[in-house]
Write a structure and sequence with these properties.
The structure is a homodimer of 333-residue chains. Chain A contains twelve helices and twelve strands. Chain A has 333 residues and is α+β, with helices and mostly antiparallel strands. Chain A has a single domain, classed as Beta-lactamase (3-Layer(aba) Sandwich), CATH 3.40.710. In chain A, strand 11 and strand 12 form a beta hairpin. In chain A, helix 1 packs parallel to helix 6 and helix 7 crosses helix 8. Chain A is globular, with a radius of gyration of 19 Å.
């Protein structure tokens, strides 16, 4: 059976393209509050669970040792756009741990923000590993390794303690044991592990509710989530959907995007987590679907919040002359 | 009923994302030689039918008047990457008709080729309308208007003779009457009209076979298609799928991409046309599906051609460190 159409792209009076996918909104006990499509099939969460991967940064004491505040913690959970502020803070964090960008093993790419990329080109420069959208997360890995007295070289490998701790945290939160069949390599070269959407959603619910997880882990997760919510620009960048979706929540909503159409998030006051995946991997659809999911969560609880997220679940599409040609919108259920 | 999965994206041993869509391979009489999914639903072809839109450029005599050779005709059918060669030739064509870039009404955007965009930024420049991927097509429109003694201002409007001729050519070839419900506005501000995939496929079959269409129109279409096949770089750009797919055909295959996951094409020697659309609009999937469609067309007729297109129907995915992380591949039927 195919997943339902979650997002439509229109042109004129017609639907031009359609995105299918699945959504799970779950409480800490695993109770499904809202679901669309198959939420039991394993899905690679990609960068949407960077908060889970950053738990050892706090649990190890490394974050306190190197003076991580909200901006720094948000950057450690980031898929950032490679803007100057992201790059500068990542470089500063590496310095605090006695390292520099040469320690980063994430690879190089031009900033995902095209303005930032062109600005770099305009200066006659080329990107380094600090511009990689994952450099903040990798900086967190490196700080943790240094704080634990571990070798930094090879910290991206599945067998390195840094990755073993991240995997254990994800297994703890999702209740999944990650065998070879659930393993892949992510864009930044670290392992990524697949689990059902409902398990990732439950994992975030556990963190924000403090239920079904150690007090220490819940505190670490809540500190990371609060940091991302306070400083969303550092986990994303200018004009990014994650920033708009968090800001619309006025401190009450956490979301994080991942490649191939994934979003995870949580509403701490309700003890709920959510996870969604667009079948075809489209980020534009995942953003709209996340807004629609949050509108759904708040529909009967807080109409004003629901209305704000309804607004983000629709986007007018204009062409190069600024003419309205269609829209991106959540499909009617 | 949903369309079938045409393309899979894998990571590790798992399918991470899936693209659904429909494909029609049709002869000039409308006989369906091969089809997947719904090929009767109207679809916006976007830039995949630029050859049809360029027919009046030849039929009006404008192409001969302004010395259009293969490169120029290919550019007039292009969604180019905004590289220097594209921009220079479009500027030259406008000069031949006594115009310059100020006549273009397509709007401006940074070159779609990121290297070309960064090169422009490195020179401290910003893009003009010549960098718009449709500037070649618009140049063809303008040359036709000048040759016909028509006003050039407003040539993008549905009521201008330039657009009326393009619409009439599309109606003739697809056998469709484009009412308001089938109309939209394209990225470059001209009208775009929706018709069934099988009708677009049949239209290309008519052109290459010379059946069911006037001899003059067939000759114009064959001249345009031959030009694109001879000079594919001018209708696309460095590293583009259209170039690879045409070059693999060694002069025997025409293809053209359109936004939102569309491809059209033809195999002149077989008198066949094809059209396909990925439901979710993903170009990466449309490219793979086009290769798979061509492999299918040649499977029993020419194993070597089929094998070349099978090769293009699979793409290894590497991350920023060059590690193989998965693949894009045609789904098994």
């Amino acid at each position: 059976m195919s997943n339902p159409i979650l997002v439509e792209v229109t042109r004129g009076s017609r639907v031009e393209s359609r995105h299918r996918g699945s959504v799970a909104v779950v409480d800490a006990a695993g109770g499904i509050v809202h679901a669309l499509g198959d939420v039991a099939a394993p899905v690679f969460p990609r960068s949407a669970i960077k908060v889970m991967q950053a738990l050892p940064l706090i649990e190890s004491g490394a974050a306190d040792r190197y003076g991580f505040g909200d901006k720094e913690l948000s950057l450690a959970c980031a898929s950032h756009s490679g803007e100057e502020g992201h790059v500068a803070l990542a470089a500063d964090l590496l310095r605090r741990a006695g390292l520099d960008e040469r320690a980063l093993e994430c690879g190089c790419h031009w900033p995902s923000d095209s303005s930032a990329a062109r600005a770099l080109a305009r200066q006659g420069r080329t990107p380094g590993p600090l511009h990689n959208n994952c450099s903040g997360k990798h900086t967190g890995f490196l700080c943790t390794a240094v704080a634990m007295g571990e070798a930094t070289a090879g910290y991206i490998g599945a067998e390195h303690p840094v990755q073993a701790r991240a995997k254990a945290a994800m297994e703890d939160l999702t209740g999944t044991s990650f065998g070879e069949d659930l393993s892949g390599i992510d864009g930044c070269s670290i392992p990524t592990y697949a689990a059902p959407l409902q398990s990732f959603a439950q994992g975030f619910a556990k963190l924000v509710s403090g239920t079904g997880v150690s007090a220490e882990r819940a505190a670490a997760g809540q500190r990371l989530i609060a940091a991302c919510v306070a400083e969303p620009w550092y986990m994303a960048g200018t004009g990014r959907a994650c920033v708009a979706l968090i800001e619309a929540g006025a401190g009450r909503v956490f979301v994080k995007t991942g490649a191939e159409g994934v979003f995870c998030g949580a509403v701490p006051e309700l003890g709920l987590g959510f996870a969604l995946k667009i079948d075809d991997g489209a980020g534009r659809a995942a953003e709209i679907s996340t807004a629609a999911t949050l509108a759904q969560i708040f529909r009967d609880r807080d109409p004003e919040m629901a209305s704000r997220y309804d607004g983000l679940a629709q986007k007018t599409l204009k062409n190069w002359n600024g003419m309205v040609v269609g829209e991106l919108r959540a499909a009617k259920a």
